[in-house]
Amino acid sequence: MDGSITRITLSDGSTRYRARYRDPGGRQHERRFARKVDAQRWLDEATSAMVTQTWTAPVRGRITVEEWSDRWLSSQTGVKPSTLYRYENLLRTHVLPSWSRYRLADVTHADVAVWVAELLTQGSAPGTVRQAHRVFSLLLGLAVRDGRIPRNPAERVPLPRVTRQEPRFLNHDEVERLADAAGEDGDVIRLLAYTGLRFGEMAALRVRRVDFLRRRLTIAEAVTEVGGRLEFGTPKTHQQRTVPLPATLAESLARHCEGKQGDDLLRTTASGTVLRLRNWRRAVFDPAVRTAGLSDVTPHDLRHTAASLAVASGATVKSVQRMLGHASAAMTLDVYSGLFDDDLAALADRMDAAARAATDARVGAVWARPAAETPTKGKRPGQRGGPRGDRTHNPRIKSPLLCQLS
């Protein structure tokens, strides 16, 4: 890189050092400094950035965070409508109130760390703070890839820990009490509690995706409410999966399929519209919880219940993962590790039994060894001399050497 430092004298007699260099595109950049060492440092930083290919034109980082957020949102074409809606809310309520007037180049790592701490002191939940930070970091990450800033100042910022709440599990009796209290919607509660479907997956389940012969449900679609509008799309992990259908549910689901076409929804409201979680919970689920004598139960707890009942029936981690549609078995263990404690106890018992068997086999092998050569009576094997072993090794000496002290 061609760079130079020139000493200039201003009209008031003071001295300045003008540093200049040309970027890879041939455009000249210059700054003036009161000290030559500062001018040299600025040139060195620019040279290092060009060598490591992290140099960015200063003018490109002068766009404000608010202006850049519009471009970032318009680029989010691979996310679900519900995710995009959540991004917009987080930007509006947490990110832009603090950063809208900042230029991208002026955002520092320390400022981001202070902002995260302020969100916590203002009463935001740790999970909300982490989500807001993620949105801001994604926004800045696009600016890095677009060559507007050299690095992402939101990376490696200390974030609050999120304490996962203990899942609420219902047993078979509680599920049946809750289903009976829900009346005609009892089949919906049983379907959620015995298959582990998300509510949006259940509401989007169509008749043609129920295989009564093989007793399988094909989960290929989900519906969510975004800003008051219903949005149909793929399931949460974008992956289609097959879920086993218990025989106890097949008959009731068959009645709901009567007179319907293959693309018709399996379960709807009494008026034939799509089930909405908020409305269904307020009108059906919460009253049923009170009638059944339960407390602190949410519709999502039915999904936890399906996992616990499956594990109690002998399901493996991989089977539970496939049923629930988790991205990995590790995620299943993160949420439901406590359900597999019995498996660990059984594993310990099996390992203990194997260790005892190995020990018994070793003892039996020792007793089965042939007897060794019988030593001479009164002597140990390899012993020379008398029975006491007090003879010296010199055969000429017939008794121990004794020394009498006077």
TrEMBL record:
SUPFAM superfamilies: DNA breaking-rejoining enzymes. PROSITE patterns: CB, TYR_RECOMBINASE. GO terms for molecular function: DNA binding. Residues 63-144 form the Core-binding (CB) domain. Keywords: DNA integration, DNA recombination, DNA-binding. InterPro entries: CB, DNA_brk_join_enz, Integrase-like_cat_sf, Integrase_catalytic, Integrase_recombinase_N, Integrase_SAM-like_N, Phage_L5_Integrase_N, Tyrosine_recombinase_XerCD. Signal peptide: none annotated. Residues 165-349 form the Tyr recombinase domain. The keyword ATP-binding does not apply. One of its GO terms (biological process) is DNA integration. Residues 368-406 are annotated as: Disordered. It holds the Pfam family Phage_int_SAM_3. PANTHER family: PHAGE INTEGRASE-RELATED (PTHR30349), PROPHAGE INTEGRASE INTD-RELATED (PTHR30349:SF64). Belongs to the 'phage' integrase family. This is Site-specific recombinase XerD. It comes from Blastococcus colisei.
